[in-house]
Design a protein that fits this description.
Length: 152
C-alpha cells in the first residue's frame, strides 16, 4: 500500500525529527552535526517525506563530480514498506533529471533485501562490494549504481 506523502527539502528546523528517526533506524546513527553539515551544503539535496508536520523519512544526497551519492535514507519503522523511500528517490530523480553528467550511487547492507529490491526496481544495478563497510558488525555493503536518465 502506497502512503501519500509531501516530499520537500529539509531545513534545520527538521533536525530533531531527523535525529529521532535516525536513532531508531540505525545501530550507528549519524550525529546531529553530520546532518546539519549536509543540510548546509548548497550542492547537496536533502529531502524529507511528511504527512502534515510529521516526518516519515528523509534522504541525504551529496553531489560529486560524476555522481549523486545517496548517503543516507531512512524511513521510520511504522511507515516502512509503504512507498515512502520510493517517493523520496523518485523526487530526487525529478530534481536531478536534467543532470545528464551524473549517475547515482549508494551503499546498502548486503542483508537489506527490501532496500536492495527497491533500488533494483528504480534501475540501480550492483557494481561491487565494500568488505566490512559497516562499523557496527563489519557487514559488507553492496555498491549500486544507476545511470542518468537520457533526456527525451
Amino acid at each position: 500500500m502506497m502512503t501519500a506523502v509531501d516530499v520537500r527539502p529539509l531545513r534545520p528546523v527538521d533536525l530533531d525529527a531527523i535525529e529521532r528517526i535516525e536513532r531508531r533506524a540505525y545501530p550507528t546513527p549519524w550525529s546531529r552535526s553530520m546532518f546539519a553539515g549536509e543540510l548546509s551544503k548548497p550542492s547537496g539535496i536533502c529531502l524529507g517525506a511528511f504527512q502534515g508536520e510529521d516526518m516519515l523519512g528523509y534522504l541525504i544526497v551529496a553531489r560529486y563530480v560524476d555522481a549523486w551519492h545517496v548517503m543516507n535514507v531512512a524511513v521510520d519503522a511504522p511507515w516502512r514498506g509503504r512507498g515512502v523511500a520510493r517517493q523520496m528517490l523518485e523526487r530526487l530523480f525529478e530534481l536531478t533529471g536534467e543532470d545528464i553528467d551524473r549517475g547515482y550511487t549508494l551503499e546498502v547492507r548486503v542483508s537489506n533485501d527490501s532496500a536492495i529490491g527497491l533500488y533494483r526496481d528504480l534501475g540501480f544495478v550492483e557494481t561491487g562490494v565494500r568488505r566490512g563497510y559497516y562499523t557496527d558488525n563489519r557487514e559488507d555493503a553492496l555498491i549500486m549504481w544507476r545511470d542518468p536518465e537520457p533526456v527525451a
